[in-house]
Amino acid sequence: MNKKTVLITGSSRGIGKAIAVKFAKKGYNVVINCAHNEEELLKTKAEIETYQISCHAYLGDMGSYDAASELFRQIKKLYGSIDVLVNNAGISYIGLLTDMKPEDWNRVISTNLTSVFNCCSLAIPDMVKNRYGKIINISSVWGAVGASCEVAYSASKGGMNAFTKALAKELAPSNIQVNAVSCGAIDTEMNRFLTDDELMQLINEIPASRLGRAEEVADLVYHLAYKNEYLTGQIIGLDGGWI
Questions:
Q1: 243 part of a folded domain
Q2: Which residue(s) pair with 8 in the sheet?
Q3: In total, how many domains does the chain have?
Q4: Does residue 120 belong to any structural domain of this protein?
């Protein structure tokens, strides 16, 4: 039987890396990507290859349709098509909306939302042809409730949630499932800007009394990728009861 192939965007570190490692352990061909940090990306590639699987690393901004198209050309050549797409690429912007410049807004929306359109539009034709595919979008609780001083980030994740629900309806007749994991406070570099006091205050708000782990996100993503063909169009909260 041919090995399945997964693409995880934004996977040089944090949640994306944890997801890539999880799929590697399960024997998938793994395609990883990030926009800027080639050194980190190649380190992650080397780690993944210790599981004796094929890993392709691509440096490029998935918010650019040309860059995404080039990645999919390379995937076609190496693996034929992908079975699982995990849209994880994301950046945050902390600050008042009135201090935000248009280029800051555009960068957040491009990285967090346009990248999802680009990768989905390029992955779907082969998934439809194969009558098989899983698309899993990594969202945030702020996409449902919004966060002060993170308006653009919240808007991008809210857009991702609506995108997930709509696309799931479109692709269900082709046996392609589309779901999102709505993450709460996960212990990654994205939260390292918090002071110790702020971190304790945050943890006190979470009924589970701790931050989530990237590996817990990875476990859920993998579960969505290989089970439950009737589960689609869902925004699944992983937040320790926080929201």
A1: no
A2: 32, 86
A3: 1
A4: yes
